[in-house]
Inverse folding.
């Protein structure tokens, strides 16, 4: 076991002998099997008592070589694989990939497909945020929200299941639009869900927003300034909580987003508490978008005219969307054949996780848990 | 729940049978380089059946796919063609660096420029400080084994002030070292490590260049085209996992 550690650790274990003797420094290993690391994340912590002097993330335990697989599949065959990256927001992954290939083919999904895409993607954002809230609160010691959010997330998964037969890795969209027409009663189901969930979000907030323990554990923890966010490439709610009003749905709109009114919630302090508030607001904004969309899904086809054999012309494209975790980008290079020459995924979780070091240095061990939670990473996406 | 099964799912958009034995031979694809006699037709047995017109009629140049020996000029893309990217910034940079700035084009509404690898840290500095590209979205690479300069290294940059995204690309040979961008954008740290891990491209000045997704002792760089899809470092697997093969 000690050998295995030696192989991967860059914090020279030889040094530990020395530090044991002449300082209070201690190197401990958190993860990869640890409930609070949200998967198989391993963090090597250098501690002085309770204080964190430095961290090092060791990742890759879930690496499946998604980008390599892409080069050996046709464009359509690779589509389901993207669901397995950020598996709690599979619909977003699929949307980004399909749109990128559509751009490469120079075609657009029909309006009706775009509306269906927006509704499902926003539902998925809600589901993702709910899962984040439940687990994040659990890490910090509040168990109740977990049961509440999982109960309510279930309703979203039921809609997914009725729509496409899958709950988690949905493969909901196809290149060029959607494969499935909405089922009968889809609009009613979604409307019913909106009615059901709106008071629930207030309920979560009641449990936490003014809860003294919650506030103490999150306020001024894991601060990240706007400048640092940009330098570190951090996007999504983490960036917005630092006061940068930037959301790809507004900055570079895609799908049917220009048709809807919604706000971009921002925070000021860039601490864990603000990130919590921003995500809570985002859930409300998602509900707003869904409400507008579900009332006026246009009639028409759900699939654009896509050639039987997808062979995009030689060229390359970068397309990114606002996934629940941040900017999810696909850089696809076509050599004119049926298989992509290269697919590069720009994963938000991977880039955001890099900020961990800066956020926890000088803070307490317990805060590391809070910060991992607030970054909202999914290791399936970090490692790909 | 019986209602959603009503439509018997037609085969998903693209056709699943695909090029039959392809998964094992990743490196036979032609490079989208300026080769006139292109072997494009040989790679996909499924192709000839369908009329090869993937692109809407925009600039439809029928020349590319079948036309055997048309000396296709520098134009790489077939359907919607790349057009020259004219902007104040490009003019300024071209004025400043002359031939160091190669092709600057817009393809499908996205701008990119190819710069000489000797300009690399400098031009990235200029783009950040003078042109406000303050957010480095991604760093990645492409491998073209048939080419003399085998790798493209690509920086995708975004400017909050302009709400604009560009790609900077440079061509390097195998073994050539690229200056690191970590001092310009700290986010480059992990991104460069991933490029190193996957392609074996080294970045000079990186604070801690080592593998990130694969284990430290692993041999080979999987996203190179000569690395097979089921290939693995058997020795590593044997020593560390105590099994003959992971397959």
């Amino acid at each position: 076991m000690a050998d295995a550690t030696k192989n991967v650790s860059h914090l020279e274990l030889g040094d530990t002998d020395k530090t044991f003797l002449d300082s209070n420094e201690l190197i401990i290993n958190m993860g990869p099997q640890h409930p609070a690391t949200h998967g198989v994340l391993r963090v090597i912590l250098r501690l002085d008592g309770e204080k964190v002097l430095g961290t090092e993330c060791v990742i890759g335990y879930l690496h499946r070589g998604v980008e390599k697989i892409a080069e050996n599949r046709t464009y359509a065959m690779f589509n389901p694989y993207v669901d397995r990256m950020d598996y709690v927001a599979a619909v977003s992954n699929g949307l980004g990939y399909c749109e990128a290939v559509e751009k490469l083919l120079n075609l657009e999904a029909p309006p009706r497909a775009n509306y269906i895409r927006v509704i499902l993607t926003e539902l998925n954002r809600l589901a993702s945020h709910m899962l984040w809230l439940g687990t994040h609160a659990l890490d910090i010691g509040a168990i109740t929200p977990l049961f509440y959010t999982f109960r309510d997330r279930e309703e979203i998964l039921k809609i997914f299941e009725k729509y496409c037969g899958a709950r988690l890795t949905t493969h909901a969209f196809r290149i060029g639009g959607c494969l499935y027409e909405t089922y009968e009663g889809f609009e009613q189901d979604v409307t019913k869900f909106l009615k059901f969930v709106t008071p629930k979000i207030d309920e979560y907030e009641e449990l936490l927003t003014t809860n003294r323990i919650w506030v103490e554990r999150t306020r001024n923890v894991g601060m990240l300034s706007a400048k640092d966010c940009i330098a570190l490439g951090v996007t999504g709610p983490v960036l917005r909580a630092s006061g940068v009003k930037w959301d790809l749905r507004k900055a570079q709109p895609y799908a049917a987003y220009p048709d809807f009114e919604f706000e971009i919630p921002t925070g000021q302090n860039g601490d864990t508490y603000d990130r919590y508030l921003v995500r809570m607001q985002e859930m409300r904004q998602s509900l707003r978008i869904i409400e507008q969309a579900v009332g006026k899904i246009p009639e028409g086809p759900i699939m654009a005219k896509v050639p039987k054999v997808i062979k995009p012309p030689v060229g390359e494209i970068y397309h990114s969307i606002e996934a629940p975790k941040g900017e999810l980008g696909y850089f696809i290079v076509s050599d004119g054949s049926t298989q992509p020459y290269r697919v590069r995924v720009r994963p938000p979780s991977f880039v955001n996780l890099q900020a961990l070091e800066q956020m926890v240095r000088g803070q307490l061990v317990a805060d590391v848990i809070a910060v991992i939670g607030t970054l909202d990473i999914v290791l399936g996406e970090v490692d790909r | 729940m019986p209602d959603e099964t009503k439509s018997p799912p037609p085969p998903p958009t693209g056709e699943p049978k695909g090029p039959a034995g392809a998964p094992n031979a990743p490196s036979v694809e032609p490079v989208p380089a300026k080769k006139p006699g292109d072997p494009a037709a040989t790679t996909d047995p499924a192709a000839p059946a369908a009329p090869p017109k993937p692109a809407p009629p925009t600039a439809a140049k029928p020349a590319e796919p079948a036309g055997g020996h048309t000396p296709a000029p520098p134009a790489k893309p077939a359907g919607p063609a790349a057009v020259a990217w004219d902007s104040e910034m490009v003019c300024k940079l071209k004025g400043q660096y002359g031939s160091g700035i190669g092709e600057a084009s817009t393809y499908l509404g996205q701008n990119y420029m190819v710069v000489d690898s000797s300009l690399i840290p400098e031009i990235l500095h200029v783009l950040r400080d003078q042109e406000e590209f303050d957010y480095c979205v991604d760093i990645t690479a492409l491998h073209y084994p048939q080419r003399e300069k085998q790798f493209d290294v690509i920086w995708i940059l975004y400017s909050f002030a302009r709400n604009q995204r560009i790609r900077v690309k440079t061509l390097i040979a195998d073994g050539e070292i690229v200056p690191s961008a970590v001092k310009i954008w700290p986010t480059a740290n992990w991104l460069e490590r991933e490029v190193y891990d996957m392609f074996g491209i080294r970045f000079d000045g990186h604070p801690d260049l080592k593998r990130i997704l694969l284990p430290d002792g692993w041999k080979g760089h999987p996203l190179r085209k000569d690395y097979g899809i089921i290939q693995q470092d058997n020795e590593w697997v044997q020593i560390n996992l105590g099994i003959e093969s992971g397959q």
Observations:
- Residues 111-140 of chain A form the longest helix (30 residues).
- Residues 66-383 of chain A form a domain with the Cytochrome-c3 Hydrogenase; chain B fold (CATH 1.10.645.10).
- The beta strands of chain A are 25-30, 42-48, 51-58, 173-174, 177-178, 315-323, 326-334, 340-346.
- Chain A has two domains: 2-58, 66-383.
